[in-house]
Specification:
This protein has helices spanning 81-96, 146-162, 261-274, 289-295, 308-320, 355-364, 376-386; strands spanning 2-8, 14-18, 21-25, 33-42, 45-55, 101-103, 114-120, 123-127, 135-137, 176-183, 190-196, 214-219, 230-236, 240-244, 247-251, 279-283, 300-305, 325-329, 343-346, 368-373, 390-398, 408-415. It is of the alpha/beta class. The chain has three domains: 2-60, Nucleic acid-binding proteins (OB fold (Dihydrolipoamide Acetyltransferase, E2P)), CATH 2.40.50.140; 102-107 and 256-415, Rossmann fold (3-Layer(aba) Sandwich); 114-242, Beta Barrel (OB fold (Dihydrolipoamide Acetyltransferase, E2P)). The relative contact order is 0.10. It comes from Thermococcus camini.
Length: 417
């Protein structure tokens, strides 16, 4: 079946109309003429699995990454970046029912500060698109930057010298599992974390990465296919640092941090701009990304986070920056009196706000809410629930994830507007 890509859907797939069918085709651009040979059904959507672009659109650009189209990491490298931003603005505007500007990422390559690379018998790289059992072998990752190539070359030298067993994904066997690379984009500090199953490493292992500021060995003692584990040992610095404007954050292998440092600066500035009053509650506070930035600007901040280790890191970050901000362990649904805060910041996981928290907000009626979301669909659901008493004062997209369909959204809600 042959057809023309009419548009991109919200997931970044090209939509081709063939008769009464709409087929969604990855790695295509509006105007492409495609030949679709096979497709599969996924949640009522037909997704092409075997296709060919027979006449490329004039709107395409040449992808930078040689693995683009097979690697599952990026979906939109063939779309000009300006058009990617327009696509995300159109998506957010349609979902939220209002015009939404998307602020571009200051960097569109070399912007990611973390990549999790699988060390498998099929390849050292990322999952092949559409699979969990296969991997695409890579030399480096353009969205991370040049240092990824250096780390992967060192890893291959180590494997060549010591011949440890690699991860057989289907069988869930093998010693080496993942290598996680993290970099402070504004500090230049580099961390390498090797994740293995039970076993032993040669004493010379860290010598292969002597240019890194921090080298970790983590052991995954569970049957789960994950890129983290219990810390077995580290060499060099316990942390690397990242800096957003005048705030320094400590980065540990097991701590979450926004993956695009350049756009994270835009994000924390936007949140600070939207906060009203002097007393702020930072819910889902993580390592204190927002709370400490606000504390540095004179706000009185309390943070609540379910992960005890993240809370420990947030309090260390507060101390490091000389900030008067207190973070404690707690669940979103168990917050006490929200009315005593001028602004409540929420940055929930992809599932959105807990229904109990929504009821608590509607009962306590804090004057302002700043909602930071990585999932526009659950954001819309939560805004509808809060719409009984709150109105959207502003909504802004921030492109934390160039070359993917994902976008961060910051919404300001006011009580009774």
């Amino acid at each position: 079946m042959r057809g023309i890509v009419e548009r991109l859907d919200h997931d970044g797939l090209g939509v081709v109309r063939v008769g009464k069918r709409e087929i969604h085709v990855p790695f295509t651009a509006p105007g492409d003429v495609v030949e679709v040979r096979k497709w599969r059904k996924k949640k009522r959507t037909l997704i092409a699995t075997d296709f060919e672009v027979v006449e490329p659109s004039a709107h395409r650009v040449e992808p930078v990454c040689p693995s683009f189209g097979v690697c599952g990491g990026c979906l939109l490298q063939h779309i000009p970046y300006e058009r990617q931003v327009e696509f995300k603005a159109e998506k957010l505007s349609a979902l939220l029912g209002m015009d939404v500007e998307v602020i571009p990422s200051p960097m569109i390559y070399g912007h990611r500060n973390r990549i999790d690379v699988v060390i498998s018998t099929n390849g050292i790289g990322f999952r092949r698109r559409g699979t969990w059992w296969d991997a695409v072998d890579i030399g480096w990752c353009p969205v991370f930057g040049e240092s990824s190539g250096r780390v992967l070359r060192s890893l291959r030298e180590f494997i060549e010298d010591f011949k440890p067993s690699l991860y057989e994904i289907r069988k869930n066997e093998g010693f080496l599992r993942y290598i996680v690379i993290r970099e402070g984009k504004f500090t230049g500090e580099l961390m390498v974390n090797l994740v293995t199953s039970e076993g032993s490493l040669p004493e010379s292992f860290p010598d292969y990465f002597d240019y890194a500021d921090s080298v970790y060995w983590s052991v995954n003692r569970t049957p789960s296919d994950v890129s983290y584990g219990e810390i077995e040992r580290f060499w060099g610095s316990e942390f690397i640092r990242e800096r957003l404007d005048d705030v320094t954050y400590l980065i540990h292998p097991n701590s979450f941090f926004q993956t695009n440092s350049y756009a994270a600066v835009t994000l924390v500035r936007k949140v600070a701009e939207l906060v009203d009053g002097g007393k702020v509650l930072d819910l889902y506070s993580g390592v204190g990304t927002f709370g400490i930035y606000l504390g540095k600007r004179g706000f009185s901040v309390e943070g609540i986070e379910v992960n005890p280790f993240a809370v420990e890191m947030a309090n260390r970050n507060a101390e490091l920056n000389g900030v008067d901000a207190a973070f404690r362990v707690g669940q979103d649904k168990d917050v006490e009196n929200l009315s005593e805060y001028d602004t409540v910041i929420v940055d929930p996981p992809r599932a959105g706000l807990h229904p109990k928290l929504i009821r608590k907000i509607l009962k306590d009626k804090p004057q302002s809410i700043v909602y930071v979301s990585c999932n526009p669909k659950t954001l819309v659901q939560d805004l509808e629930a809060l719409g009984e008493q709150y109105a959207v004062e502003s909504a802004t997209g921030i492109d934390m994830f160039p070359h993917t369909p994902h976008v961060e959204t910051v919404v300001k809600l006011k009580l009774g507007v």
